[in-house]
Amino acid sequence: MSRELPYIAAIDEAIHQEMARDETVLYYGQNLATVENAPFVSDFGADRVRVTPISETAEIGMAVGAAMAGLRPVVELYMAEFMLVAMDQVTNEAPRMRAMSGGQVKVPLVLKAGYGFAAGWAGQHTGVITNMFLGVPGLKVVAPATPADAKGLMATAIRDDDPVVFLHHYLLTLVHGDVPEGEYLVPFGQASVRRTGGDVTLVATGWMVDRALAAAELLAGEGIEAEVIDPRTLAPLDMPTILSSVEKTGRLVLVDQAPRHSAVSGVIAGEVAEHGFGLLKAPIVQVTALDATVPYSEPLEAHVLPDEDRIASAVRSVLGTAPVAA
Amino acid sequence: MNSDDALRVLATMERIRHFEERVARLKLAGEVFGLIHVSVGQEGVAAGTCTQLRDDDAVYSGHRAHGHALAKGAPMNRVMAELMGRETGLCRGMGGSMHLVDVEHGFLGATGVVGGNVPMALGSALASRLRGEDSVAVVFFGDGAAQGGHVLETFNLASLWQLPLILVCENNGFAEFTPRSAHTVVERVSDAVAPYDFARETVDGNDVRAVWSSFGGFLERARTGEGPFLLECLTHRLSGHYVGDPAAYREALAADEWRKLDPIVRLRTSLIEDGTLDEAAADAIAAEAIAEVEAAETFGRDSAYPPESLTAEVAYA
Ligand SMILES: Cc1ncc(C[n+]2csc(CCOP(=O)(O)OP(=O)(O)O)c2C)c(N)n1
Ligand SMILES: [Mg+2]
Q1: Which tens digit of pLDDT belongs to each residue from A195-227?
Q2: How many Cα atoms sit within 13 Å of B138 on the Cβ side?
Q3: Same structural domain for residues A206 and A176?
Q4: Cβ contacts (< 8 Å) between B116 and chain A: which residues?
Q5: Domain contains A37
Q6: Centroid of ligand 2 to alpha carbon of B183 (angstroms)
Q7: pLDDT score at B256
Q8: pTM, full prediction
Q9: How many structural domains is chain A composed of?
Q10: Of B26, B33, B90, B91, which to mutate for an interface test with A (greatest number of A Cβ within 10 Å)?
Q11: What does the alpha-carbon distance between residue A284 and residue A304 come to, in Å, rounded to a whole number?
Q12: Measured on CA atoms in the order B161, B163, B169, B175, is the torsion positive or negative?
């Protein structure tokens, strides 16, 4: 059974169900146990649901220690950029402890953070900084694009024995979609094929999945059938699904809201260049944000970010059907 | 604070109040973008401090920065144009509400990441010291920021090196939707610096005369190279955390009581009582502020959006 839920409510549902299932799960963060999230406090008590001061280093460091002590903390960080205050805990401590201890400890925690809020929130609140986390072996990085995936990936993240950076896209917050009731897990490392097509493979994450699907509709009107793949988790990354699609289409366009030189698309392009070179009928094209701080001004913000028109033109160019520039 | 100062401070508070009330309306109308925090009710802190500073003094602020920028001398029409995302804006439309910078007037800027501004102010204070100048650095931060490790690190380093830095904490009792009691057992932010070698004071931040005189005392000493100092201003924001905040968490706060403590009302009343102003003259100060806001809005609306080439132009020096 499923019903419609907003993306953000689907995430909350997963946390709630996991807290009910496993009493070692904690949930804490700024503003959390105030009136706003009262249901969590009334259902699980103020021991397990805590409000923290604006102290990201202590919040995340405490999660690492609590995880090593056998608890499963979920830290509410609101914005991915706020995690950067605590970069030592996120990158030097949480993901390294298991490896450095020779496997003696495990660090099951979830860092829940919104990202990509391209709505005039400007230079410090709109970033797509996924690659800062991808560059750290030991961290798992997930970025759901639908309410159902948001629920299923959060539940999996909480049960996972490694530190997980759970990135929810702020522009999807209130988007509704079918969400299964009850226990629902989406495995890590399994991409979702959101549209099938034989002419070109589009890979996109988060808010960009809808942009890629919109571009695919546009292209369908021109007789071009695009396959759209959402990797859903970026570490681990499901390369087999992407490669088998490229085997079918021979063409790959990678869409990413991150700046060009720190986009996941670069990682995927590298893998396909190495393992799928013989499958390609055209060079891989990346449609990413520009290498720029996201500007405040609305038209400039739009200028630095990818959109469906840019995706569609990239597809036309790899198919050799690009209209001659006017 | 003599009567000329008082009139200047009153005019500054009126300018901030009317500017921010207009910005809130423009935000709801979609002419101003993004996340907007206003300081309605807290203007006494910005006005009582920044109006005593010079252009070569550095001021740093956070997410609630409009008042500090205006009081430090940033032209209102350029602040408004910035919030409307225009090329004529303070930062040519690149920064917006949480990232205002006006180098010409010594407003080195606002940052949207809580507490990030506080250590940066150390650098300006160090530069004044190394250059042998009598300029000072001032940083505004909230009671919520005071629990950040980088803020505590700043307290230590500033006192260790005795830098000419004035830390001004606007303690409005809330960080977003959470009361201070849920964040710390330290009731007064000025107590957080107790172990360090700091001159510190806590004042009623809605009493502009008190803010003026405590800050003025610290400033005089900082100009001779002394420091650091911490001024905690107890205040209250009369509106939500951000424009659009339903502010459900605040029912218990007796907003009516605070309205009586509005810093603008208090200074205005006292100036009328002591004969510096009559009602008509006080109204004229407010009317002048409103006219300036209207002109700023028109200036913003009539300005062009920045060219696309700007993002690349400002990416690297
Ligand atoms: C490092 C960081 N964590 C969290 C936030 C989200 N946030 C924005 S404003 C704010 C509250 C700040 O409270 P305070 O310092 O008291 O300033 P006030 O809003 O009361 O002026 C928070 C938590 C942030 N911007 N940066
Ligand atoms: Mg506060």
Answers
A1: 999 999 999 999 999 999 999 999 999 999 999
A2: 33
A3: no
A4: 85
A5: yes
A6: 11
A7: 76
A8: 0.96
A9: 2
A10: B33
A11: 20
A12: negative
